[in-house]
Amino acid sequence: MHTFWRILVRTVFWSYERGTWQYDIAVVAIVLFVLLTPRNWFHDQPQMGVPEAAGKVALVSDDGKLRTYRVDAQALAPPARTPELANDLHAAMQKAVPAFRGRGFEILRIEAVRDANGTVIAYDVQVKP
Fold first, then answer.
1. Is residue 81 domain-resident?
2. Taking the model in full, what pTM does it have?
């Protein structure tokens, strides 16, 4: 029984020298685990498309016809041009606002909200549902 525990401890703490048969078996076991483990055991899939914007879109005002939302700038990739910004804002709002899912809406105005240093921290987006 003492021999079994000694083998187990040496295997767990990886104390076998390279080139020994115990070391080779441990390496083969690791490689088999990596190659044969089902994909669905791990849920760290890469994010596709626009980043998740839940909690980063807030309704600022609603006068019945027009609504203004504040979209956190961190919810968007850095825009290169205004048309891309409008498309990214449209996609982020469609994901974050349940009323816009599966329905069309028009963005009328985009205004950048800046902090004291002049860095854009959010966008005020006026939409027409």
1. yes
2. 0.50
